[in-house]
Design goal:
The complex is a heterodimer of chains A (584) and B (358).
Chain A: H1 2-6, H2 17-52, H3 57-60, H4 67-91, H5 101-110, H6 117-132, H7 140-154, H8 164-181, H9 184-196, H10 201-221, H11 240-271, H12 276-293, H13 302-307, H14 316-335, H15 343-363, H16 372-388, H17 391-402, H18 405-425, H19 430-437, H20 446-453, E1 466-467, H21 473-483, E2 487-491, E3 497-502, H22 503-508, H23 514-517, H24 531-538, E4 545-549, E5 556-561, H25 562-580
Parallel strand pairs in A: 1-2
Antiparallel strand pairs in A: 2-3, 4-5
Helix pairs in contact in A: 2-6, 2-7, 2-8, 2-10, 4-6, 4-12, 5-8, 5-19, 6-7, 7-8, 8-9, 8-10, 9-10, 9-17, 11-14, 11-15, 11-16, 11-18, 12-14, 14-15, 15-16, 16-17, 16-18, 17-18, 24-25
Chain B: H1 8-13, E1 23-27, H2 30-48, E2 52-56, H3 61-67, E3 75-79, H4 80-89, H5 97-100, H6 109-112, E4 122-135, H7 147-150, E5 160-163, H8 169-176, H9 184-188, H10 191-202, E6 208-211, H11 216-223, E7 228-232, H12 233-241, E8 247-263, H13 270-280, H14 283-292, E9 296-297, H15 300-303, E10 330-332, H16 335-357
Parallel strand pairs in B: 1-2, 1-3, 5-6, 5-7, 8-10
Antiparallel strand pairs in B: 3-8, 4-7, 4-8, 4-9
Helix pairs in contact in B: 2-14, 4-16, 8-10
Classes of the chains: A mainly alpha (584), B alpha/beta (358).
Chain lengths: 584, 358
């Protein structure tokens, strides 16, 4: 019920097309600008922490003459970081958990509000600290959430445009990705592919503007460096495309393991009796202990990302150990309460897997190939893509980061095969899997998910005839005649629902008390019944009204009629259609 | 900045002329020191009456430790990372460089000087580049143009002269490995990065002739002992333009560094030393130096004044390390990192050298 109250009520479009276009574009520029600055501040903050807390290799090497200090920092910084992150969630956040793209997808798909602002801020700060103290988590999830949060704030502007909150969120997300990757096209596509999941001109234009604004701020105003530069002269042999496809299939398996482990780790964490501070601290300590032997697992690992494209930088064994360690530690960190995303760890796991795949190809003497870079990049994108469920975005990221057409085609093949396989094994993305665990199934379209999210009780009415069990049938009959009621609902003195009677059935009984003739209900809903369940049940139901009964004390909340359910259904379908087909 | 600093003559009028002991300034010898004499030392004595005794050294902190007290060193010309290390080791005196340097017009000195110019014990004076140069006669056909070519002894055969030090060469090894300039120091900060750089260096191990003295590279190239050599851009320029030697610079991958002035802790004449540093970093003096040897002024007001070589033959701005036509790929030396990783890099480099003898 509360959900319905919070449900965003899109105001119907007012003003002409010109008004709409101009206001939406201005809003997009505003959101793009704000999100871009916020994302840059976010990245700079945790990079500063990395330096201050002796996580960044470039600072660590300068204390090389003081090994005890380095060991202490390696063990204590992630562990204490975890304790503080756990404490932040326990005592400052209403949601008590890290917020990420899944929450944004939920809000945009079901037309629900984002979690509260305060939890969003706590989650963002916790992510800065998690990344800053070297936890094995990613930066892009929190950046996407930050973008959505800033975008959602813009929807409070007093402009009356249909579906504004969703569009504003999409703008924020597009600008965030555009800034973070220096990739405006990928930002635009990500907002559509992952968040909106439909293409309407009304949303397309402002997200494009927001994405371009983010790019301008990052590139022209701040001159931020590109995430990843790689020299690649082209795919030399046609048979390599088969290898890329094969790499895609293998990557799907790795991505599936990665996603499953994250979900399982979260379940395990829920079962442990440890307090959140200790639990997250333990995950941090595990990262620290591992980093004593495998320094590459600490933090985001931009150095390892680069090494993976250099032939001979890692031995096959090192690659294998690192892939396994990174999967395990990322799952542990995310499941046990660090705040952060999964995309950057997936990129690292992928690029190392790609490099590993290449070392195997290379060891077979007579298979000619075009060098490690292509395989590393293909692996990187083929593992990352199914995790976020965004093949198009990922292909575009390769294109925009490397500006290399050949490499993009190679990555495209690997990404598509990976997504295909992974979709069959686990599902569309980690975000969808996380939502599925909250009971939101987006796999069959969002109309269904929205009907799942709507409670039929929101359409219950208190306008019905009632009778007590001790009343005489004749008295009730007379009352029904006067009020022209067709049905009567029988309640005891404590308003508990006993059953219902149809008017024509009642007339058949003579001198009897209601309690003697009332029949147990053939169909009833409760406060949790979704609109979709209601629709399915009503299909074979002969009566008119269905009682909505509270499941704990059986009090009657109200009744819903077939007509009101159908009206609500049509209303929802209309609003989805209006959103998806809105003109620019 | 105190207003009186703006009026140069006033400052010099306040100086005691009674000092008969000359101010000891230590530099690097060769064409660089000659250029400094013309552009800075002589004009300073003319303006202030303070005599200057010039000594040369090899740029190392060890030399300061061994010689400074015995030889009464006052002002030392150093590369920035050594100055940072020397400052931390207590061989140099801290001073407030922002108060010493002279303001040009109304531009605040912090905006005028290059970023990071003012440090605890030093102030940047000029910008130099460590580069690879080659003897043009060694390559009658296709000439080397990229850092990768230095490591490619098949396409560009011939001996390579390399300074016997991990400075610059490790960075270049990673650049030649395809690492973007921006990431070189991040990667060199890891054990894996150092291994990769040394592995790259191993590829040309048998083709290396080691040099120690900064004058060696030109000599080795001129004699035809080597085809390519690492070295400093100013000396290569002098060799080509003054001595007519067939030496040209590969600007790709150049490593840009700051040359600084510092005050030795053996100095008993701090006021004069500071006065000298103020004079030596004035835009006119820096421009005059850059016209003699292409080490670019470390402040914008100086860069804007750089004109023709005094013989009127060459516009010198084109030959400064930061001239735009030299291409986009360059590294800026991370001097703090340099100062703090010297021991590690020396140790790893030495271990690699020893491998060779096994």
């Amino acid at each position: 019920m509360t959900e319905r109250k919070n449900r965003e009520n899109p105001t119907q479009g007012e003003g002409g097309a010109f008004y709409r276009i101009v206001t939406l574009c201005l809003m997009a520029v505003l959101v793009g600008f704000a999100v871009s600055l916020a994302s840059i501040a976010f990245v700079d903050s945790f990079a500063w922490l990395n330096r201050a807390l002796l996580i960044s290799p470039r600072i660590r090497v300068q204390y090389e003459s003081n090994p005890m200090l380095l060991v202490a920092a390696t063990l204590l910084v992630p562990a204490l970081g975890g304790v503080v992150v756990g404490a932040m969630f326990s005592w400052l956040s209403c949601e008590r958990r890290s917020l990420g793209p899944a929450d944004v997808v939920r809000a945009a798909q079901l037309n629900l509000p984002l979690p509260d602002f305060r939890s969003g801020i706590v989650s963002t700060l916790a992510a800065v600290l998690s990344l800053g103290s070297g936890a094995s988590v990613g930066q892009y999830g929190p950046i996407v959430y930050l973008g959505a949060m800033v975008g959602r704030a813009a929807a409070y502007l007093r402009i009356r445009i249909q579906a504004l909150p969703t569009i504003a969120i999409a703008c924020g997300v597009a600008a965030a990705i555009s800034t973070a990757f220096n990739a405006p096209i990928a930002g635009l596509v990500f907002a559509h592919e992952v968040i909106l999941r439909h293409y309407s001109m009304q949303a397309f234009a402002p997200t494009t503007v927001a994405s371009a604004t983010g790019y301008v701020v990052a590139n022209v105003m701040f001159d931020r460096p590109a995430l990843f530069l790689v020299n690649f002269s082209g795919v030399g042999h046609s048979h390599e495309f088969i290898l890329f496809a094969l790499l895609g299939v293998i990557s799907a398996g790795i991505a599936a393991i990665f996603m499953k482990m994250i979900l399982q780790s979260a379940e395990l964490a829920a079962r442990t009796r440890l307090h959140a501070t200790l639990r997250t601290g333990f995950a941090g300590l595990a990262v620290g202990v591992a980093a004593l032997w495998l320094p590459d697992v600490l933090g985001i690992g931009t150095e390892a990302l680069r090494f993976a494209t250099i032939e001979g930088a890692f031995s096959s064994l090192e690659l294998l150990v690192l892939v396994a360690a990174k999967i395990f530690l990322t799952a542990l960190c995310i499941g046990f309460g660090f705040a952060g995303g999964v995309f950057s760890p997936a990129l690292l796991i992928g690029i190392l897997s790609g490099a590993l795949f290449w070392t195997m190809i290379d060891s077979v003497q007579f298979v000619p190939h075009s060098g490690i870079a292509a395989y590393a990049i293909c692996g990187m994108m083929a593992v990352a893509s199914p995790v976020i469920g965004a093949p198009l975005t990922v292909i575009l990221i390769v294109f925009e980061l490397t500006r290399n057409y050949d490499l993009t085609i190679a990555a495209m093949v690997a990404v598509v095969f990976s997504n295909l396989v992974s979709y069959r094994i686990v599902g569309r993305s980690l975000f969808d899997l996380q939502l599925e665990r909250q009971g939101i199934d987006l796999s069959t379209g969002r109309d269904k998910a929205r009907l799942d999210a709507m409670r039929v009780s929101e359409h219950a009415t208190g306008d019905y005839a009632r009778a007590g069990p001790d009343e005489w049938v004749a008295d009730v009959n007379a009352r029904l005649d006067r009020g022209n009621w067709k049905e009567v609902y029988v309640l005891d003195v404590e308003e508990r629902y006993l059953g219902k009677l149809r008017h024509e059935e009642l007339t058949a009984f003579g001198n009897a008390r209601i309690s003697e003739v009332v029949v147990p209900p053939e169909l009833e809903f409760n406060e949790r019944t979704s609109m979709r369940e209601a629709l399915e049940a009503l299909g074979s139901y002969a009566g008119d009204g269905v009682p909505v009964v509270l499941s704990n004390d059986r009090r009657l909340l109200g009744i819903v009629t077939k007509a009101s359910v159908i009206r609500a259904y049509l209303g929802e379908v209309d609003s989805i259609r209006a959103e998806e087909n809105a003109p620019g | 900045m105190h207003p009186v600093r703006l009026a140069l003559p006033l400052v010099f009028a306040s100086v005691s002329f009674a000092q008969c002991e000359p101010l000891t300034v230590v530099s690097w010898g060769g064409p660089y020191q000659q250029a400094q004499s013309e552009a800075i030392f002589k004009p300073f004595t003319e303006a202030t009456g303070i005599e200057i005794k010039v000594l040369s050294y090899d740029g190392s902190i060890e030399s300061i430790n061994e010689r400074a007290v015995a030889e009464n060193w006052d002002v030392v010309d150093m590369v920035e990372d050594r100055a940072i290390a020397g400052c931390e080791a207590g061989f140099l005196l801290p001073f407030d460089a922002e108060e010493i340097v002279l303001q040009d017009q109304a531009v605040p000195v912090r905006q005028d000087f290059v970023e990071g110019a003012f440090r605890e014990c030093s102030v940047a004076q000029n910008v130099f580049a460590t580069v690879v140069a080659f003897n043009v006669r060694s390559y009658p056909g296709i000439k080397p143009t990229r850092m990768e070519d230095f490591f490619d002894v098949e396409a560009f055969p011939g001996k390579r002269a390399v300074q016997k030090s991990p400075d610059a060469i490790l960075e270049w090894a990673l650049l030649a490995e395809g690492v973007p300039a921006r990431q070189v120091y991040d990667l060199l900060s890891t054990d894996r990065g150092l291994k990769l750089a040394l592995r790259k260096l191993s590829e040309i191990r048998d083709h290396i002739v080691w040099w120690d003295d900064v004058a060696d590279p030109v000599q080795l190239l001129a004699n035809g002992d080597v085809s390519m050599s690492t070295g400093y851009n100013g000396r290569f320029f002098s060799a080509a333009s003054n001595d007519g030697l067939p030496i040209t610079i590969i600007w790709d991958g150049r490593l840009i560094g700051h040359e600084v002035w510092a005050i030795s802790n053996a100095s008993g004449r701090i006021a004069d030393a500071e006065l000298f540093i103020g004079f030596a970093t004035a835009p006119e003096q820096l421009a005059a130096l850059a016209e003699l040897i292409p080490y670019g002024p470390a402040r914008r007001s100086g860069q804007l004044r750089v004109g023709l070589k005094p013989d009127g033959t060459i516009p010198m701005r084109d030959h400064l390390p930061n001239a735009p036509q030299h291409g986009e790929r360059f590294l800026t030396r991370d001097t703090v990192w340099y100062a703090h990783t010297r021991d590690l890099r020396d140790r790893r480099f030495q271990a690699w050298l020893n491998e060779k003898q096994d």
